[in-house]
């Protein structure tokens, strides 16, 4: 099922991902979805668990490198690229099914992803005992201390609109109520089938597996999603388990370019990249908000920053020039500082 | 001119002079000083002219300004004039707020200067030497205040004499840290609003040109101030919302200890009512949002009480008017007045009577509603005792809505405690009454639109509506910066919906009814 | 005999006289009918439907379900408990937002979706979310970052609500908030990507609709409300004389969607 070892074959695809956790090849659902798609499409490929988002031009992982072409970033684009190259898992879908595939993919990638983020980053017990240690162990080194904080902040900003509601007599966050609806939609769509669209896997299966596999983790401190899936949607749980054994019977082929990242080796090998990753405020699957800025807006921003800095400099200069505040470098004269009565 | 006896040295003592210890040498000096004073007083009308004024010790202050303030001395014609004008000049320099110490010395002019001028031969001349010491230019103060069960920390920084003319730049910030939940019922009953407050202020004195033989009191000093402020007020407890205000104000203030202080201001404020609580009433919910208030206001205060904290004698008047409506979307005319008359009945007994009233009217032809943050509130340990903070007046569910017309009366008798007659603690017997009328809210479900009324109808409705009355007894303790009261209150008459706070009530503050 | 605090006894006897309340607040919603009120962002002149897509969504859903209600204009999202318009005041005074409105309508006026199969219900959920993420994003981006639209449609709409100079400050502040929201979802905002996402979503919706009356047969559902709201706002608000806005052009390319939008509008919102 997985690519055979063929040393020295540089024509293979190389997928840069976040590192492994919870017995899965990656802790990032988008990377996991791309891995699943590559496995099913039976191409020659290798995984590079680089754990460093700075290698990608957009600062995001997963990233697919196809020979000497420009790398492709993001699950949707990776799948589109592979389809163009002739590895299309959706060939057997009708037009309606293609529309449904798009709809359910966006359900999983936008909404179920938020449920995952909530469970991982906004449940205090999980953050302390499960998420942070696991991700830190996977990342190793400097990044393991810095990146989890950034991911947590981004998650909090994205999920602050979800409030507490009462569900079946208990007070819980409304995202779990909504998650049940979303799981119900997926379960109803899957029904009794092998895969979502018949008996051949499609890109939707890759995406659903990539995300749900990470929901089905019993070892979290508060495995709310796992218990919802196990008790209320057993078909989905069984589906995940089946696909996991199906996809990962043999270990994945590792890229020879992969080098573990430690602080010193990072700094020595490429000081510029290391410095840049230090200065990146956000990295990983959440990136610097480098939104498109028109030249006028960039100029406005520079003017704002420049005038603020200039005003502060003028104020400080005035204060010091007029001796309002003096930095006394002379010696203490005995009694000089006492009040005169 | 050598035949004249040397003129005595005059020294204006700095304000913080400490009492001298009596001993023989000091007694001798006192005696001499008294002789000098008698001598000077008896020769008030002796003709004397000023040759020059010299000012020592100016580093940052503008010399033109100081010269302007001391110039009337030059017009002196007698010794009495010189002394009086010098004293007035020193007062003006002290009031500038820039100098730490001002001293005047009279000296004979240098040899060889002939007296000239129309008076002819025989004119005595004197040199006036002013020795000043400028105060520190940078001042910073941090502090923490504990009051009303929350902690407020504040920090003030001030740059004095920024441009050499007595101006100062001040920045102050204050943050209140409120415990997450009221500690107990009584704390909730009187915890006031908290929040944060930041102000940047630039102030410049407007000094009238001093004139010869005219007391400073006749030309009260004035200041003009420009301030920018940002306030966050947390009113969740009684009004279920938070208010954020950002504004700019220009103020012109005059101060006269006898005739009173005036302040004219123009204020532009952007107010944002947000964070409406989940269980807030509809009346508060309808007031949520942004408003821009552009208002002219005038305020007059005259305090002739002997002690503002626990007075025994005197009167106090405060009047404030505000007209909002030049631009912005808030339009009203507001007036508020307070008068206090305190009479000493002898033997330590004091009777204090207070009357407060206020009226808030929408402008004619205005359809804009008057929101909750502009209305009056009544009730609490500093106004009608025996009721909770903002406990008197219109209420919707658990929110105090405030009102547009009110009056409040207070009568207090302070009696000395046996064996503690000379301590600043007194027994306190009081009776308070007050009534607050709502803004006329139509029954439509849109935002409240006021129906047109005249001040006369509002007042007659106010006077004919029964007030909330309370009485009680307690203790009042005077501190140098505030008064503490502990009263046992009996709310005697109330309106349905008033939040009463019978029993022990604790009050902290400066102004009471 | 339990000892009663004399102070409590005294306080319980007070006040000696209680006068009637000085103010009796009006019931909200107004008596006696207690008709529920939906507060929406003000529509543009002479229109019934709001200019805000979220408000049109619920207006349409209430209309489809035949839920008796009145409409009130409100331009202050702070009034709503969730901080977002629209909000509904039910006849018993509860204030409902978002999904609570849908549930209330289902409980009171009947469930439009009761006859759908499980698979159709799943499709309803997923396509609703598809429209709410992709189309909403594209609409937000066009409203706030397409310069022509921003200057002729969006800014004037917000600036009419407040006095000068507050309106200028607030419209920029709202834009900053929307940008921050968008960035919390998508790390990089690129016009072409957002537009192509919207085009894919529109193609998917067009395929699902086909030539039916509504998305799931002959009766409307929440998905119809959602899709109609976005299509209607795109078609009516983004209509600029002269140059065409890319998002509107993308919608115009799908004939069945345009016909659908027009049909729903004429059935439920046209002035008779």
TrEMBL record, chain A:
Gene3D superfamilies: 1.20.1050.10
Keywords: Membrane, Mitochondrion, Mitochondrion outer membrane, Protein transport, Transmembrane, Transmembrane helix, Transport
UniProt key word Hydrolase: no
GO terms (BP aspect): mitochondrion organization; protein transport
Domain Mitochondrial outer membrane transport complex Sam37/metaxin N-terminal residue range list: 31-140
Residues covered by the Metaxin glutathione S-transferase domain: 180-243
Keyword Transmembrane helix: yes
GO cellular component: SAM complex
Signal peptide residue numbers: none
Annotated PANTHER family: FAILED AXON CONNECTIONS-RELATED, METAXIN RELATED
Family the UniProt entry places it in: Belongs to the metaxin family.
Protein name as it appears in the record: Metaxin 1
Organism for this UniProt entry: Geranomyces variabilis
From TrEMBL, chain B:
Topology term for the membrane: Multi-pass membrane protein
Keywords associated with the record: Membrane, Transmembrane, Transmembrane beta strand
Subcellular location: Mitochondrion outer membrane
Gene Ontology annotations for the cellular component aspect, listed alphabetically: mitochondrial outer membrane
Residue intervals of the Bacterial surface antigen (D15) domain: 161-510
Pfam name, any one: Omp85
One GO-annotated biological process of the protein: protein insertion into mitochondrial outer membrane
Family assignment from sequence similarity: Belongs to the SAM50/omp85 family.
Name this protein carries in UniProt: Bacterial surface antigen (D15) domain-containing protein
The species this protein was found in: Geranomyces variabilis
From TrEMBL, chain C:
Any one GO CC term of the record: SAM complex
Signal peptide range: none
Subcellular location: Mitochondrion outer membrane
Residue ranges annotated for the Mitochondrial outer membrane transport complex Sam37/metaxin N-terminal domain, each copy included: 55-175
Cited Gene3D superfamilies: 1.20.1050.10
Keyword presence, Cytoplasm: no
A Pfam entry, by short name: Tom37
Keywords attached to this entry: Membrane, Mitochondrion, Mitochondrion outer membrane, Protein transport, Transport
InterPro entries for this protein: Glutathione-S-Trfase_C_sf (IPR036282), Metaxin_GST (IPR033468), Mito_Protein_Transport_Metaxin (IPR050931), Sam37/metaxin_N (IPR019564)
Family of this protein: Belongs to the metaxin family.
Protein name, entry field: Metaxin-2
Chain's gene name: MTX2
């Amino acid at each position: 099922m997985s690519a055979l070892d063929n040393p020295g074959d540089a024509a293979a695809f190389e997928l840069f991902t976040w590192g492994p956790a919870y017995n899965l090849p990656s802790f990032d659902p988008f990377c996991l979805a791309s891995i699943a798609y590559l496995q099913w499409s039976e191409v020659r490929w290798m995984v590079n668990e680089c754990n460093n988002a700075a290698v990608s031009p957009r600062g995001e992982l997963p990233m697919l490198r196809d020979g000497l072409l420009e790398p492709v970033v993001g699950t949707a684009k990776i799948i589109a690229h592979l389809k163009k190259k002739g590895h299309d898992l959706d060939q057997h879908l009708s037009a309606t099914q293609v529309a449904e595939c798009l709809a359910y993919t966006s359900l999983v990638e936008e909404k179920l992803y938020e449920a995952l983020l909530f469970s991982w980053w906004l449940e205090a017990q999980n953050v302390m005992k499960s998420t942070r240690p696991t991700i830190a162990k996977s990342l190793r080194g400097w990044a393991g201390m810095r990146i989890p904080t950034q991911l947590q902040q981004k998650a909090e900003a994205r999920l602050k609109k979800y409030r507490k509601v009462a569900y079946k007599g208990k007070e819980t966050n409304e995202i779990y109520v909504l998650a049940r609806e979303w799981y119900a939609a997926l379960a109803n769509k899957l029904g009794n089938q092998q895969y979502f669209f018949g008996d051949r896997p499609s890109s939707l299966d890759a995406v659903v597996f990539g995300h749900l596999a990470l929901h089905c983790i019993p070892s979290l401190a508060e495995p709310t999603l796992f218990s919802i899936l196990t008790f209320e949607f057993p078909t989905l749980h069984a589906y995940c388990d089946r696909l996991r054994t199906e996809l990962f019977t043999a270990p994945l082929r590792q890229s020879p370019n992969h080098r573990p990242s430690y602080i010193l080796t990072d700094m020595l090998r490429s000081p510029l990249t290391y410095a840049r990753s230090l200065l990146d405020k956000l990295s990983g699957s959440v990136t610097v908000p480098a939104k498109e800025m028109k030249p006028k807006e960039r100029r406005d921003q520079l003017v704002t920053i420049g005038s603020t800095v200039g005003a502060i400099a003028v104020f400080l200069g005035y204060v010091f020039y007029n001796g309002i505040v003096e930095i006394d470098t002379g010696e203490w004269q005995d009694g000089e500082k006492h009040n005169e009565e | 001119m050598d035949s004249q006896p040397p003129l005595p040295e005059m020294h204006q003592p700095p304000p913080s002079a400490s009492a001298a210890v009596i001993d023989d040498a000091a007694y001798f000096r006192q005696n001499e000083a008294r002789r000098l004073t008698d001598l000077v007083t008896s020769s008030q009308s002796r003709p004397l002219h000023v040759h020059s004024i010299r000012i020592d010790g100016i580093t940052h202050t503008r010399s033109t300004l100081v010269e302007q303030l001391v110039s009337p001395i030059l017009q002196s014609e007698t010794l009495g004039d010189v002394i009086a004008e010098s004293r007035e000049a020193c007062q003006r320099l002290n009031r500038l707020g820039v100098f730490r110490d001002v001293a005047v010395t009279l000296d004979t002019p240098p040899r060889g200067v002939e007296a000239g001028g129309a008076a002819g031969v025989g004119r005595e001349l004197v040199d006036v030497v002013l020795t000043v010491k400028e105060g520190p230019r940078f001042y910073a103060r941090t502090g923490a205040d504990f009051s009303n069960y929350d902690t407020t920390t504040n920090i003030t920084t001030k740059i004095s004499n920024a441009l050499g003319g007595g101006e100062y730049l001040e920045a102050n910030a204050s943050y209140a840290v409120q415990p997450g939940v009221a500690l107990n019922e009584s704390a909730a009953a009187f915890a006031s609003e908290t929040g944060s407050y930041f102000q940047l202020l630039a102030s410049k004195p407007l000094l009238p040109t001093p004139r010869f033989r005219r007391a400073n009191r006749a030309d009260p000093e004035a200041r003009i101030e420009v301030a920018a402020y940002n306030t966050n007020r947390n009113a969740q407890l009684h009004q279920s919302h938070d208010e954020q205000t950002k504004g700019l104000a220009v103020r012109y203030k005059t101060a006269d200890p006898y005739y009173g202080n005036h302040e004219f201001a123009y204020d532009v404020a952007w107010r944002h009512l947000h964070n409406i609580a989940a269980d807030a009433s509809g009346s508060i919910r309808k007031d949520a949002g942004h408003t821009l208030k552009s208002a002219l206001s005038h305020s007059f205060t005259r305090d002739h009480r002997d002690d503002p904290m626990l007075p025994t004698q005197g009167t106090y008047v405060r009047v404030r008017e505000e007209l909002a409506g030049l631009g912005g979307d808030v339009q009203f005319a507001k007036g508020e007045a307070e008068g206090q008359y305190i009479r000493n009945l002898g033997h330590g007994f004091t009777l204090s009577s207070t009357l407060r009233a206020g009226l808030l009217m929408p402008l004619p032809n205005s359809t804009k509603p008057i929101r909750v943050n502009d209305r009056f509130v009544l009730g609490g340990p500093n106004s009608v005792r025996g009721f909770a903070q903002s406990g008197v007046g219109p209420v919707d569910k658990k929110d105090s809505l405030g009102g547009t017309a009110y009056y409040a009366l207070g009568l207090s008798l302070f009696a000395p405690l046996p064996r503690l007659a000379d301590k600043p603690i007194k027994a306190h017997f009081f009776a308070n009454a007050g009534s607050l009328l709502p803004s006329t809210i139509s029954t439509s479900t849109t935002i409240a639109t006021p129906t047109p009324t005249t001040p006369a109808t509002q007042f007659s409705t106010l006077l004919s509506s029964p007030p909330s009355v309370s009485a009680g007894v307690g203790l009042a303790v005077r501190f140098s910066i505030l008064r503490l009261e502990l009263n046992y209150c009996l709310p005697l008459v109330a309106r349905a919906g008033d939040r009463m706070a019978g029993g022990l009530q604790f009050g902290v503050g400066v102004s009471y009814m | 005999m339990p000892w009663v605090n004399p102070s409590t006894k005294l306080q319980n006897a007070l006040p000696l006289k209680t006068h009637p309340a000085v103010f009796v607040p009006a019931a909200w919603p107004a008596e006696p009918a207690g008709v529920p009120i939906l507060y929406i962002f003000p529509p543009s002149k002479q229109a019934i439907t709001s200019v805000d897509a979220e408000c049109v969504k619920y207006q349409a859903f209430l209309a489809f379900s035949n839920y008796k209600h009145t409409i009130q204009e409100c331009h202050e999202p702070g009034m709503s408990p969730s901080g977002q318009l629209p909000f509904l005041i039910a006849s018993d005074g509860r204030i409902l937002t978002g999904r609570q409105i849908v549930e209330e309508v289902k409980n009171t006026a009947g469930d439009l979706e009761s006859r759908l199969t499980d698979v159709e219900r799943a499709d309803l959920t997923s396509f609703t979310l598809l429209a709410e993420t992709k189309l909403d994003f594209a609409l937000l981006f066009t409203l706030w970052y397409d310069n022509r639209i921003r200057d002729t449609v969006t800014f004037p709409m917000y600036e009419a609500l407040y006095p000068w100079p507050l309106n200028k400050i607030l419209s920029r502040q709202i834009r900053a908030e929307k940008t921050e929201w968008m960035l919390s979802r998508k790390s990089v905002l690129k016009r072409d990507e957002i537009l192509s996402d919207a085009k894919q979503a529109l193609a998917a919706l067009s395929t699902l609709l086909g030539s039916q009356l509504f998305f799931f047969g002959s009766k409307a559902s929440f998905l119809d409300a959602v899709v109609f709201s976005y299509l209607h706002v795109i078609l009516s608000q983004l209509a600029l004389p002269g140059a065409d806005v890319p998002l509107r052009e993308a919608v115009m390319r799908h004939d069945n969607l345009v016909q659908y939008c027009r049909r729903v509008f004429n059935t439920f919102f046209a002035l008779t």
